[in-house]
Amino acid sequence: MSVGLDVRGLGVRYGEVPALHDVSLAATGGDFIAVTGPSGAGKTTLLWAIAQAVTPAAGEVRLDGTPLRDHDDALAQGVVLIPQGSALAVTLTAYENVLVPLVARGVTGAQARERALAALAAVGLAESGTHRAEELSGGQQQRTAVARGLAQQGRILLADEPTSELDHDNRERVLALLRQQADAGALVLMTTHDLEAAEAADRVLHLDEGALAQ
Fold first, then answer.
1. In Å, what is the CA distance from 22 to each residue of 11, 44, 66, 128, 164?
2. Span 195-207, pLDDT tens digits
3. Which of 16, 29, 92, 184 is the most buried (most CB within 10 A)?
4. What share of the chain is helix, strand, coil (3-state, %, to 5)?
């Protein structure tokens, strides 16, 4: 699963508004990195740009020395994005929300079902898989999104504010799961406003006005 990430001079603009400016960082599989900063600092944009879900205006993202071409390429290379706000399909059950991306990636039926159920159990939602996403609380939706990301077993896991809707116990549960992913060889990059959550990471980067603090 080991992977090398090299972000070089990354810049993103939304129209005339700069969101990221000359951001560079390097990390490898096994790293658990937290990115902190105020609202509007560019934390979400950084993750989306690494995942190639937004097109950089400058710079590039390399995995194992090879530039990523687009979002499909990033997905194929094992880049998994857990978006802020869960982004679930509200009419699907929690289980279906975790299962569908696996099937879309070509995971076989039995294996996909096993991974989806295991991921829901890991986040404490084994009994809630049959509930539609719209019936879940905000915290349960967030944990379902985390389960969806974990089930994909990516080499790079980009988690955008994954603990923002969670109480203390579930925050600790999710942080422990992210740590497990890093210990298993994945590269985990997490944005957070929560300085206590950031302390769970191996390294903390601070982003402000679209640039990493030196």
1. 5, 16, 19, 43, 27
2. 999 999 999 999 9
3. 29
4. 35, 30, 35
